[in-house]
What does this fold into?
Amino acid sequence: MAQQDDFAPTVALADERAAAAAQALDIRFTGSGSEYFRIWIVNLLLTLVTLTLYAPFARARRIAYFQNNTLVGGDPLGFHADPWKMFRGYLLVLLLGVGYWAVSNFLPHLAWIALLVFMVLWPALWRASLQFRLRNTSWRGVRLSFAGDLKGAYLSMLPFFLPALAFVLFLPAVTEGEEMAPEVARRSGIVIGSVVLLFTALMPWLLARIKRYQHGGYVFAQQRTQLDTGTGRFYGLFLKTGGVSLLVGLVGAALVALVLFVLARGMFGDLAAGQRRALVALVVPVALGVIYLLIPLVSAPYFGARFQDLLWNGTRSDKVRFGSALRFRSLFRVTLVNWLLIVVTLGLYWPFAKVRTARLKLEAMSLAVDGPVDDWLASAQQAGKGVLGDAAGDFFGMDMGL
Amino acid sequence: MGAAPASLHSQWFDGQSPRPRAVTLRVEAGELLMQAGEDTRRYPLARVRWPERRTHGQRQAELPDGGLIQHADAAAWDAWAQASGLQDSAVVGWMQSWRAALVALAGSVVFLGAAWLWGVPWLSQTLAHQVPDSLDRHVGQQSLQQLDRLFLRPSALPQKRQDELRQRFKSLVDRAYPQGDAPHWELAFHASPVLGANAFALPGGYMVMTDELVELLHDQPDALVGVLAHELGHVEHRDGLDMVVRASLISALVGVVLGDASGFLATVPATLATQAYSRDTERRADAHAARLMHAGGVPPAAMAVFFERMLVEADKDSSPQDEEDRVSLPIAIGSHPDHLERIRFFREWRPEDSR
It folds into this structure.
């Protein structure tokens, strides 16, 4: 198989190491769909029969498979998390999740307390999970780390809870069992409308803040990354994605209407009034269905590809520069084929699809480092702290998926 | 085996520097011996984190001191590991065999099928019945308030008519539950242009019947009582809470199967499942209604009139504009379209059926 070639660079690299001043490290993905299928299905069965208690172990294996098959400059990424720590983290998150679910379903008048607890905990958990994931990731035996501080996590995450908070604070209380007075209804409408509008307008900015925090905290051998992408470009991407979705929706709806009318005319000739009415009633749900299918199929890969490029082309540190050249066309094609095959195989293609998408996304990435990696890495590392860093300090292996 | 222990030339990272060093590995007397130049290090086998055998990818073994052995040639590593007597875990062997993976596939399908047919209904029923009455009532009150705000208006029915219907249903319940073990219920009448002729039950025994339904069946008190009996079936089975638990269990199952699947994908099976289950609970409530009516001395066939008139209603206002104004509340009796089948059920119901 072609994969055999991927193993060669590790050895070859040794000779070139001192040579170039700026070195491009290529990123390859060597995972295979059929192997991941077997991992997935066994993990699935074990997770099901243990009533999901096996989930963190399955997750550790899945992450390890994907990271071990990601070769950066010929060397794989390592994943070293202790699944038992992840198990403790899983139990904690499970407990919080079930508690939140129970409160919001059974005691809705206490939902604001649950929201508050969630707000207070979530940014810290999110940061802990970033730290855990990076600390347990290595390249050439050197661990990565995440240096974002707690304050930054709260500052960038909390605005996302504002709409919910605004609803709790500003929505007028409705007295029990009474009819809603028109002016109260109007006020509620205004509050909901303006919060939604404001949030939509702020969304790209908030996302930019989150990503700036996240991509500004990755550390490898004292090289800390930062995200240079300006907020304006996030707005640009959101506008473009909105435009693409609108276009797709309009074209889809027009096509559906056309096809249905042509078909109906061909089959029944002239339509009676009742038939025409039935047809009109049919067009709306079918068009909605088509749009519901088209939006994730077109808009999601469009946004996904552009967003990855936007993020990683702006991520850099003093000596490391990331790049991404993922094209919408390739991601769209892979997404389309994936979905078709998933439907045809009743879902069994799922793991193959994951591997295909991962390969496409990872191999679109590039990495350039200044000077011989070994030298700056080695000198930087001497000032660093112990090997395991503070990984040993995690009692809960927080890993919630980045 | 038996001869000199197999050795392997590999590379080692000390965890400090990204520079690899050539080492020779050997397994001897329960220890891993790693020779780097002059220097030999020993690690107990159990403390090394060995890689899982796979076809693709390199091999990495983690040493207890933070070092990392990395081996590019997976096949050579596996051969060495086997010659050195290192064992795969059972799960790893399982994942490497296609036959075993297919067995796992069959096992998963069987498990999911069983969970769907028996596990989820059983668990949700058990959990719903575990919820204390006070909480049940509380949840009911909350949702009643919400529905009140959205869909309901004060009833225009004369108090006398309301009391009369309530009394009629109460006497049916008293006759059907001679031991007085009927679930707690409270009946309220409301006008609701949005819901039309309809009735529903909420957790805690809160039952609502619309003025429009009373209107529709003004000459059929037996059918009205039948509808209430159906709703009491929901109350007794705690279908309100049951639905909440089921929907959550199904989304959890979908989440487990698809891992980090997108929300879009996860909602589809959950919605389908809720619908399929809600048909089951309707059928069960119908059966309950028939039993109750029979025990209370009302012929179950009286319910058929209700569904017949609902069919006529549906025909009358099937123009698309009206359809959009109507809300289909999944918990409401009139929102389930299989009227013909249900007419047949109540017509053909015999007391023996409930045995």
About this structure: Chain B has twelve helices and ten strands. The beta strands of chain B are 7-13, 21-28, 31-36, 39-44, 59-62, 68-71, 153-154, 186-191, 199-202, 206-210. Chain B touches chain A through 66 residues (CB under 8 Å).
